[in-house]
Amino acid sequence: MARSDFSFFYDFRVRYSEIDGQGVVFNAHYLTYFDTTITEYFRELGFDYRAYVAQTGQDFHLVKSLVNYEKPILFDADIQVGCRVSNIGWTSITFLLEIFGKGEDSRYCTGEIIWVNTDQATHKTAPVNDEIRALFGHSELAAT
After folding, report:
1. Which terminus of the chain has fewer Cβ atoms in its 10 Å neighbourhood, N or C?
2. Considering only the top CATH level, what class is 3-142?
3. What is the pLDDT of residues 42-63, one digit of tens each?
4. DSSP output for 58-112
5. How far is CA 125 from CA 32, 63, 135, in A?
6. Close Cβ partners of 140 (under 8 Å, ≥ 6 residues apart)
């Protein structure tokens, strides 16, 4: 995807603790960037995650994470992670994420995260409710 395909970005500056012996971001930190960005994306949309869990007894569980590394991210780099929803299934949400240089079209990686909505009492999948579906709107899903 292109940078212009994302309407939400979250900024990071690479910290020394995130790099490895080669001086680049250690691979596991990409998932931390993705997770933080999804949390901030929901916050930007006005979704109260903790209230959702308390009120419904449901929560999301990660079932798939994919990172395609395209070029290394170095210490002290200013980066932005773009996030969007590409699909909402009966019980799942698929997020597409890409990391760019801050304010640049240059891309470091692409990723996909899939969550499944789960009833916390039974540990069985549960349908994604209409409130969550409405957060993303038809336009975002149709643009992918």
Report:
1. C
2. alpha beta
3. 999 999 999 999 999 999 999 9
4. EEEEEEEEEEEE-SPPBTT-EEEEEEEEEEE-SSEEEEEEEEEETTSS-EEEEEE
5. 24, 11, 20
6. 7, 84, 85
